[in-house]
Amino acid sequence: MAENINEEFDWDNLSDEEWNKRLDEKIAMFNEGRGEVKLPPPSTAIMTDEYERGINYKYITEDLIRHFADACGDPNPIWRDPTYASGTRWGGIIAPPLFESCIAFGSAFGGRLRVPGIARLAGGSKHDYLKPIRPGDSFSIYDRYAGFEEKQVEGKPYRMFIESVPRYYINQKDEIVAVETHRNIYMATPPGKRGKKVKEAKMYQDKVRRVYTQEELDMIHQNYDDQLDGKFRRGAKTRYWEEVEVGEKIPTIIKGPVDVADACARTMVSCYPYAYAIKWAVMREHLQHHPIDPDTGEHILRRDWHYTDHAANIFGYPYANSAGIQNEMMLVHGITDWMGDDAFVKSADSQDRRMVFFGDMTYVKGEVSKKYVDENNDHVVEVHVWGENQDGVLHTKSDFIVKLPSRAEYNRPL
């Protein structure tokens, strides 16, 4: 697949018509490579592109699973207590959904459409699970390119594209355990329309950080105490498929106010550590995408907007924001508490709709939207789960397909 297409012309000085023509040519060239399989860089390699990512953790340990659960804020003993987990039908600790983001997150195809006028954002991911991930597993990965699709947007000066790349996770038995389809959103604005207020950041220009009342904080802390006490957790009490009703709601789980400690907890387990010279290596060939810090004169790694308000301000946003995958991780806690130890998440299809800024709350809510027996004769339910901020605005949503035990087939292996 061609990675670059005649970059000799000046994108900023093209007419809007020519700019769109060149963009279409570039995307068509990428899409000619649909289906191409690509191995990631070796784990020993020093990355030269922040978005070209390989294995992060090859070997799965009890500690790594526990740390991931900690980063979700989830105290469930099935993720952390070997004695408890050995008494479940799994016979030991297993990893929560989205854990594959620890193993490797993103794709080997890197960040594309690196031309002026392109804004790139996380678009959520589709996660499919064939088997549980356990301590002692080891993984290899490969990616299969799925290309760009344009989404029609009304009344906007930009065009919107979604790029998808499925990543396959292969365990030591050569089994495909999980497939994560990473989605990126690209907003493409031609030169003649960039003077208008078209940036996605503009919708947040009036954002003001909330100061919570003591009554609100007491409510938050009570919910946290209830989480720690397992009040919302189904646990060892089997939730049978026959007992579930469409429209049934899951308990509300609270997260926040999100802060830098929360962001760093996620970074520790499912983000690639770049510092000093290693950080420079992923930046130096793409400096136009890593802005200069006016306080130091040096370029900053663009992901810094997930950690400091100062970096977020440089990008035009009011406050630091939690990463898209972190927002998806919040929803996992709600569904796994509801479904209980005997259930298995077969898939999670997530969409990132709005940013979650430092200081924002998340109320994880959900309800059962479907109930059926699938093509594998599994008894499943679809549960729509979403996160709302303190103003009731939805920021992330996910549809989980959960396999539940049936009373008629309880002893059938999951």
From TrEMBL:
<dbReference type="InterPro" id="IPR039569">
    <property type="entry name" value="FAS1-like_DH_region"/>
</dbReference>
<protein>
    <submittedName>
        <fullName>MaoC like domain protein</fullName>
    </submittedName>
</protein>
<dbReference type="InterPro" id="IPR029069">
    <property type="entry name" value="HotDog_dom_sf"/>
</dbReference>
<dbReference type="Pfam" id="PF13452">
    <property type="entry name" value="FAS1_DH_region"/>
</dbReference>
<feature type="domain" description="FAS1-like dehydratase">
    <location>
        <begin position="57"/>
        <end position="178"/>
    </location>
</feature>
